[in-house]
Every structure is written in structure tokens, then in C-alpha cells.
Structure prediction request, 363 residues.
Amino acid sequence: MNEQKTIPCFNPASGAKLGEVAAAGVADISRAVDKARVAQQAWAQTTFAQRRAVFSTLLQTILEQMDAICAAVVEDGGKTWENAALGEIMTVCNKLRWLIANGEKHLRAEKVDSGGPLFYKKGRIEYRPLGVVACIVPWNYPFQNIFASLADPLMAGNAVILKASEAVAWSTQYFQRLLDGVFDQHGISRDTVQIINGYGDAGAALVRSGVQKILFIGSVGNGRRIVEGSAQTLTPTVMELGGKDPLIVCDDADVQRAVHSAMGGCFVNLGQSCVASERIFLQEGIYERFVQELMQVAVQLRQGDAKTPGSVDVGAICSPLQVQLIEELVNDALAQGAQALLGGKRPEGAGNFFPPTVLTNIT
Prediction:
């Protein structure tokens, strides 16, 4: 069990300390679940029209506070303004719009055929709220991971307890205030959605807390731990786990388009993404031209502290541990004969930086 009572928060780009956030313990998780159960009973009684109204207010609030949200994500996550706006806010807004337009349609009762032997019976499928849904999400998209995860269970009438990564605990305080303000406008209990900050012990306690469903986004190793914990209470889980994502370029491809696809896949959010391209396979016929054109673009990438929009192309790595992992992987490749055409070495100075790197001659 982690004995730390607070979570120290740092700006990944500057290394400056942002402050500290209280770390939830096992008892805090239990209290949060109890409060969520009470709040969910009232939320489940709301109509779809009322839920759409809440979601519409949430959507409008996000749009009004877009600059502040971007600033929080940049400061806490180290990414660029552009990735915060397009990769996080835009995707959340699109999801909220879809749920406002289509949520009720997919959740209303459906008539079903009872089958020949039961022709005299009428059947239907009803979609009812489960209760309390737990979401355990990572640090790579601080805003999107929270709001995109809570949106579906909330529209379906559930309460949500969301355990965010301790690596981005600073911004989650603001996100909770944003949600609280929306709920206050509609007379909804703030306990309907609670964002919990804590370490592994808090996540483990949430898994075993008796919630009705668990959503997990993260690594395969932690996914196994979630399954082991949820099996004790037979709690159903939904998981998005990490993998190895190759980009394959054939020799009849549009080289320029393939290069920009590779650039986006490798360097958007510095590869800290579930859809990142972690390795590139090229057919021999396209190899030389592809590498040449890739380098022409990659060498122009500007890295640094994204204090203002448009100031840099890539920002900082979210945590020091992740920088260390990247450094170890690159050094291992170089030791096995890889050649660094670009980057490959961690810079000195403050901040969690590792430069855009292009490795060839990989075994």
C-alpha cells in the first residue's frame, strides 16, 4: 500500500512544482462509492430531456472555457496547445454532441420477436442504469480520458467515480470544478461524478469496492490486475489495453502522404497515444525516398515548453519515468546496431524532454 498522503505535481516542460493534491486512500474510496450510490438513485430518475440539458450545458461550458482547459492540459501534461485543442477538446465535444443527438435512441426499449413457440408473448429489451460505474484512466490525454469516459455511463443514468492518473492530478481539480458548476446549474448532486486522485492502492480499492462496472484504459500488466481484482466480485469490465502498432508502407504508396501519416503517428503528443505508430516497416523499393522525405520534415520539428499556441511542434513527456523508459529503449536499439539519423539522446537541463528521434538499421 502506498503511504503517501499527497501527490506532488510538476510542470513536465519546466520542472516547476505546481503544488500538491491530496491522495485518496481506501477509506476515501469507500465513502465516495457510498455517496455515488445515493446520487445515482436521483440521477437515474431524470428524463432523457433532462440529461440532454445537462450535456448541452457541459458542452457549452467546455467551449466557453476552451482556452483555460488548454492551458491546464499544457501545464499539467506537457503537450502542445494544438494537441490539447484538437486531440482532447474537439474529440470530447464531438462525443457530447453525438450523445445529445443519439443517446436516447440507443437506450430506449426495443421490441423483440419472442420466437415461434412463444408467439403469444410479447418481448422487449430494456436498458436500465447499472448503478455506479468506475473509470480508471491514464495520463496521456488528461481532459479527454476523463470526459469521454464518463459521458456514456452518465447518459445511461449511472453515477461515475473516475480515478485519474496521479501524473496529471493537478488539472483534474479544475475539471471537477467544471463538472460541479454544470451540475449546480441543473440541481444535480455533485456526487454524481467524482474524480478521485490517488496511487495504485486507490485504484485497487475502487476495483474491489462493489461498483457495478469498471472501465479501464492502460497497460496490459495493470489490466491483468484489474481482472484479478474484479473477479472477486464478478464485476464486468471494459478495457482498452496498450499494444504494438506497426505502420506498413508498401512501395506503391503515395510517399508524401505516407510520410505525413508516419509523422502524425509517431510525433503527435510525442507518441504518447494509443494509436501511435511505434515502428515503421518499409518495402525496399520505397525505403530510400521515404527516409529522405521523412527527415526533411522531421528535422524542422520544434520542441519546448508550449507556453503559447504555435510556439512549438512537440512538447514534453508527461513523467520522468516515461522519459527514462524511452531513453532505455533507444539506447538498447543503438547498442544493437541501430543508427540515429535524428535525435537519440536526452538533452541536459530541466524538463521531461526527449527529442524527436529517427532510428534506422533496426535489427
In short: The chain is about 45% helix and 15% strand. The mean pLDDT is 94.
